Amino acid sequence: MLMPAPKRWEHRAWLAIAVGLYWLLVAGGDSWLLWAIVPGALLLAAGVALLLLPGDPRTTQYMALGGVLGVLLAVGAALTASFGAALLAALGSAACFVVAGRIALEMEPQYDGAPAIEMSPQMDARAALDEALLGYFLASARMPGGAEGERLCADAFKLEEALQSLGGLQDPGLFHAQPPAPSDIDSSTHRIYGSNYEELSWDSGYAPDELLPGAAVWRSYRENNQACVRVLRHPGKPRPWLLCIHGYRMGAAWMDLGLFTPKWLHHALGLNIVQPVLPLHGPRRIGLRSGDGYLDGDLLNLVHAQSNALWDLRRTIAWIRQQEEQPRIGVYGVSLGGYNASLLASYEADLDFIVAGIPLVDFATATWRFMPPAHLRYFESLGMNEARYREILRVVSPLARPPLLAPEKLLIFAGTADRLVVPQQPLSLAQHWNTAITWYQGGHLGLRRAPETAETIREAILRAGWPAFDSAV
Fold first, then answer.
1. Which of 286, 323, 371, 399 lies in the 20 to 30 Å Cα band around 108?
2. Per-residue pLDDT for 471 more than 80?
3. For residue 92, what are the CA distances in angstroms to 13, 45, 49, 234, 466?
């Protein structure tokens, strides 16, 4: 891994400082300030931090977030305050957005085994989109501290002891039981993007071991206890089934089926599509936003969430196997879905293939990458460091057990400029799986525009020997 040379000063920070000051100091009255306060404050703060503290990844994330909010809020400022001032503010915000992406890419190391990023203004903008999303995640994440932080660490250590006593840290397979196929299934029919789909609902049946801290709290999440699965299937002769696993903060039908498009996967390729909703997402959410409690907040929730997800996914596969004799099943997951697809590889042997798209596979590395330094020092002073957190999460790690599928059935695609799932993550999975990665030149949010993603799905289908229902395969 080749690290970039550090800088004493980042002179491009002056752009964000200037645009931030322009937003805040333009004499447009109260109506202007209403639109200006958020992008102005973000850009000014990010610019000052970037100038004085170059190398902190959060500065470009907040700079990109301020830039994109500046462009959006300039519309309101133009309509209610000053059109000319709003136009200049929008142009300056857009420039800050693109520059934030370029600086972020320059700060990232070159990972061994990953191709070099093809730098361009378009690539800067793609990276900036990822940076802005990260800025939103960080700004809205719940960061425990004080007495709550002490409690979380104490509970995490109790969890570690319980997992040790149950044998889960030695062999995670001992920790995860094989779920039965669901019964008492409720079904309703819906339509989206010109396609009809069934929405199935059944009791998840997942119950964490009572010895585990947080088990009672997890069982109290009533909405989460009901599994939700969306199905698009063809009438007539059996078709292969593709299990599609969504990413973090997704879970709504319009979003998930916008990613796993029925027009291509269901209609063009002729596949039956099964799209389960992950725990704490969509109709299973426990907070205001889909995914609340999964990756932010209580450290215990991640072990419970991932154990619950693995149980639900395997139960969904059991449901598929009830539908016909010897069904052909492939798995395709993206981002957090890539994590869960990768985890399935260690527990389900009778799958035709698994495609892990832009897969996150090491939560400890990701957490320590994005957590504020003060919180890191605080948790480490309590005895919770990155290595220990990784060991606790080993019970739900895709890297803890060897895959049950042959390497030719395991496929990965990843983005060279991905700011959420940096190349280090898919490279770790590729080494564990002893397989190659298909790279595309782009970021996390640009996967749908990358032809390599569709090519990887087609390659998986061809390797599996699935029948072609039309020329699209």
1. 399
2. no
3. 13, 15, 18, 51, 51
Reduced DSSP (H G I as helix, E B as strand, rest coil) percent helix, strand, coil of the chain, to 5: 50, 10, 35
Distances (CA, A) of 359 to 264, 273, 329, 337, 363: 22, 20, 20, 7, 11
For the segment 290-310, what is each residue's pLDDT rounded down to a tens digit? 999 898 767 778 999 999 999
Whole-number Cα distances in Å, 173 to 79, 234, 313, 391: 59, 35, 15, 15
d(CA 89, CA 43): 11
pLDDT (tens digit per residue) in 307-363? 999 999 999 999 999 999 899 999 999 999 999 999 999 999 999 999 999 999 999
On whether the CB atoms of residues 10 and 107 are closer than 8 A, the answer is: no
120 DSSP assignment: -
Q: Which two tokens stand for residue 238?
A: 């059996």
Measured CA to CA, the distance from residue 234 to residue 227 in angstroms comes to: 23
**Per the structure block, which two tokens stand in for 61?**
């994330």
What distance in Å separates the CA atoms of residue 22 and residue 164, rounded to the nearest whole number? 57
Residues pairing with 243 in the sheet: 274, 331
The pTM score is 0.93
**Contacts of 360 by beta carbon, 8 Å cutoff, 6+ apart:** 335, 336, 338, 339, 366, 420, 421, 425
Closest to 62 measured CA to CA, from 95, 16, 27: 16
- Closest-CA residue to 411 (of 462, 337, 469, 357): 357
Other beta carbons within 10 angstroms of residue 1's beta carbon come to 11
